[in-house]
Amino acid sequence: MAKEYSRTQRVADQIQKELAQLIQLEMKDPRLGMVTVSIVEVSRDMSFADIYVSFLGVDDQEKIDESLKVLNQAAGFLRSQLARAIKLRFTPQLRFFFDNSLRRGAYLSSLIDQAVAKDARSGKDSEEGSEE
């Protein structure tokens, strides 16, 4: 059976789609690099939308903070553009946050690789010891 999506989830999906285009096409700030809108979470009453973004090729926390500051300062402009694109009675206030799931995933992947390599080495050592 197909899963039913709530209205807030449908609105969040639409906001994500529209914001990705707006940021790419309408934002002219040079401090803002390549931005990916990862997740949009809309509150139950639809008064707030928390937008989680990641930045391509940016690992410096200072640059990330500056980019988030640019996006949060442009939130009013983006909200007005969003209101034109999406017909809602009330357009939620936009709050931007950094999505560190990519960084966290890479870290966890490296830990798994290290554990697998360590197991392979210890298995090889025990096989050599049993042959003697």
Ordered list of secondary-structure elements with their pairings:
Blueprint: H1 7-26, E1 35-42, E2 48-55, H2 61-73, H3 75-85, E3 93-98, H4 101-131
Parallel strand pairs: 2-3
Antiparallel strand pairs: 1-2
Helix pairs in contact: 1-3
Model description:
A three-stranded mixed sheet has the order 1-2-3. The chain has 132 residues and is α+β, with helices and mostly antiparallel strands. It is 57% helix and 17% strand. A hairpin with a 5-residue loop joins strand 1 and strand 2 (48-55).
Q: Mean pLDDT score, rounded?
A: 84
Q: Could you state the order of secondary-structure elements as H and E? A: HEEHHEH
Percent of residues in beta strands? 15-25%
> Can you count the beta strands?
3
- The helix content is 55-70%
What is the topology, as strand order, of the major beta sheet? Answer: 1-2-3
Please state the overall shape, judged from the principal axes of the Cα atoms: elongated
Head-to-tail CA distance between termini: 59 Å
Tell me the major beta sheet. 3 strands, mixed
Structural class: alpha+beta
Low-confidence stretches: none
CA radius of gyration is 22 Å
- Tally of separate helices: 4
